[in-house]
Amino acid sequence: MSFEAKKQAAMVELENSKIWRPNYEPPFLLFMWWLGKETRPPHYNSFMRNALSLGSFFAVGWGLIMWLLVWNSTGLSALAAIGAPLLAGLSFGLILACYYSFSAKRSKLSGWEELPETEECTEQYS
Questions:
Q1: What Å distances lie between residue 98 and 19, 37, 51, 79, 80, CA to CA?
Q2: Helical H runs in 17-46?
Q3: Exposed / middle / buried, residue 107 (Cβ in 10 Å: 0-12, 13-18, 19+)
């Protein structure tokens, strides 16, 4: 089955859930789709995949912003400039992974592999 067909089925299932749209289409996901990457919505990822991907995305982004705006001019050590974003990214990744795992279970979402096999099956969620 193509990624696009599964993505469509997932989006229909998410739209029919009580999950707020910005929670199942976060900016990083829209950015990855814009880049042409076949990235699953976070509710269909494993806990570890969410923790690692969201944590590293946050750590790199927040670390760069903090370096450019604050730390560069303060003389912060390299260890602190690397350690702080890693710790922040780890915390952020774990918190969001917990949220997405809990939200998917509470909304009784299908697993990625359990989504309909054909594009016609997406109508069962409508």
A1: 15, 24, 8, 28, 27
A2: 21-24, 27-34
A3: middle
Tokens of 97: 């992974």
**Angle CA(85)–CA(90)–CA(96) in degrees, nearest 5?**
120
Q: Which single residue is written with the structure tokens 């998917």?
A: 104
pLDDT in tens, 58-87: 999 999 999 999 998 888 888 998 999 999
């989006």: which residue's tokens?
Answer: 11
At 22, list the tokens. 């910005």
56-77-54 Cα angle (round to 5): 10
| Three-class DSSP category at 115 | coil
Contact call for residues 85 and 60 (beta carbons, < 8 A)? yes
Domain coordinates in residue numbering, the chain: 3-125
Rounded CA Rg of the chain: 17
